Each structure stands twice: as structure tokens, then as C-alpha cells.
Amino acid sequence: MNEWVPIAKEYDPLKAGSIDGTDEEPHDRAVWRAMTARYVPNKEVSGDPHLTLFVARLNLQTTEEKLKEVFSRYGDIRKIRLVRDLVTGFSKGYAFIEYKEERALLKAHRDANKLIVDQREIFVDFELERTLKGWIPRRLGGGFGGKKESGQLRFGGRDRPFRKPINLPAMKNDFYSEGKRERAWSRGDSRDRKARERDYERSREPRRSERSWGYGKSERNLEHRVREDREGRATEGRERERKDRNREAKDGKG
């Protein structure tokens, strides 16, 4: 826990599948697939990975010329590689931009993220395929980020960093006083919650009595209907017996 950081320093599919990096069991099949994958970065990709930016969520109509126009304002660009479909030649919506200087790379990483290009908000991060140990791409169940809010999200990257685990030990440092204030607020919040629960229970008491009265009334109605049915059947039986006696008397006179 003491080594917890919001951004992953080494890629672990199991940790990336956890919101705080503390999971011990994978929660979806894609994590299993990433854990068993054996991925080797493409050796045909040239250039310095430590001077390369990953640019995603591009408009499919965005071209290399447009990317050069936007990103050249941060420094001299050595190469732009817009990833395209091998069959159709259409853009896949992401690209890699290699700079000549580290200063330009850091400036673009800081300022170009969430920039609007061709009516789309882009995402900018360092290249991770060749720089982050153990990297598994999204198509094999790894990667970072994700669109499915119900599952298969990946954490530990710039887009979705790990959340702080709730069971981290309290550290005695410069923020100790702030931690005391947070704990005091949590105690006050627990008291407020108990008060709300009491108010809620009190508000439910009349409703319970109403429900019990309604339930008793329905029982009385049911008993009344049952009693009427019994009396009706008894009256029908007596009427039937009277008719039978009259018929027998008529037959005897005949």
C-alpha cells in the first residue's frame, strides 16, 4: 500500500482492471485474456519511443497535414504516423507523433490534451507500447481507459488513474492535520446519518399504523363476506328442503 501511485509504473492487467489497483481476482474475461497474452511490440516501428506522443480520439477525417499544423506549434516534429486500416485505408482515429526534442514533447503532452481538433476532443499521452514494461494492448484485453461504464474499464493511465484505496494507512506527514479534519468530518457525517435514519423511522410510524388498520379492515371485510356466503348456502339448503317436502306432500295426496 505504501507504494501506491495513481499512474502505473509497470503494466499489470489484474491491477489495471481494478479501480484502485488492489484487486486479487479478475472481474471480467478480458482481464483473463490479457493475463495469458504474450505480446511483443511491433519491431518494424521506428523512432525514439521516449520522444513519441500517442494521440487518440481523432476525427476520422483528420489528416496528417492537420496534425502537423496543430502539433508543430509545440516544437519541431520528426515524424507523424496516422494509423490507417490496411484494407480500406481509412483512419482508425489515433496517431503517433515523434518530436526532435524532449522539451517539445513535454510541452505538447501538457497543453495538447483535450484540445479540440476538427470538432473532436483529442486525448494525448506518452507512447506506452515500447516504454511501459508488460504492456498489453486493448485488443488483447489490456490497455487503459475504456468506454463501457458497466465493466471492462482499465485504470492506471492518464485518462483514468487509480483511485486512492480506502484502506490506505494514515501517514504522519505534513497532511496529518488535514487527515484529522477529514476524520472529524466523517464522525459528524455518521451522526448526521443516524439522525436521518431516526427521522425516517419516525416518519414511517403513521404509515405502519395505517397499513395495519387497512389490513385489519380487509380481514373484517373478508370474514363478513365468508359469513354471508355461509348464511346464503344455509338459506338455499332450507329452501330446497321445503320444496322437497311440498313435492312429497303433493305426491301423497295424488
Write up what this structure looks like.
The protein is of the alpha+beta class. It has helices spanning 13-16, 29-36, 64-71, 102-111, 176-253, and strands spanning 52-56, 77-84, 91-99, 116-117, 120-121, 123-126. The strands form two sheets. Strands 2-3-1-6 form a four-stranded antiparallel sheet. A hairpin with a 6-residue loop joins β2 (77-84) and β3. Mean pLDDT is 82; it is low at 174-186 and 208-215. This is U11/U12 small nuclear ribonucleoprotein 35 kDa protein. It is found in: Nucleus. InterPro entries: Nucleotide-bd_a/b_plait_sf, RBD_domain_sf, RRM_dom, snRNP35_RRM, U1_U11-U12_snRNP_70-35kDa. Pfam families: RRM_1 (PF00076).
Secondary structure layout:
Elements: H1 13-16, H2 29-36, E1 52-56, H3 64-71, E2 77-84, E3 91-99, H4 102-111, E4 116-117, E5 120-121, E6 123-126, H5 176-253
Antiparallel strand pairs: 1-3, 1-6, 2-3, 4-5
- Major sheet: arrangement of strands: 2-3-1-6
- The strand count comes to 6
Shape: elongated
Helix content: 40-55%
Instruction: Provide the low-confidence segments as ranges.
Output: 174-186, 208-215
The value of Rg in angstroms is 37 Å
- The assigned structural class equals alpha+beta
Largest sheet, in brief, is: 4 strands, antiparallel
* Span of the ends, CA to CA: 109 Å
Give the strand content. Answer: 5-15%
Mean pLDDT: 82
Helix count equals 5
Instruction: Give the ordered list of helices and strands.
Output: HHEHEEHEEEH
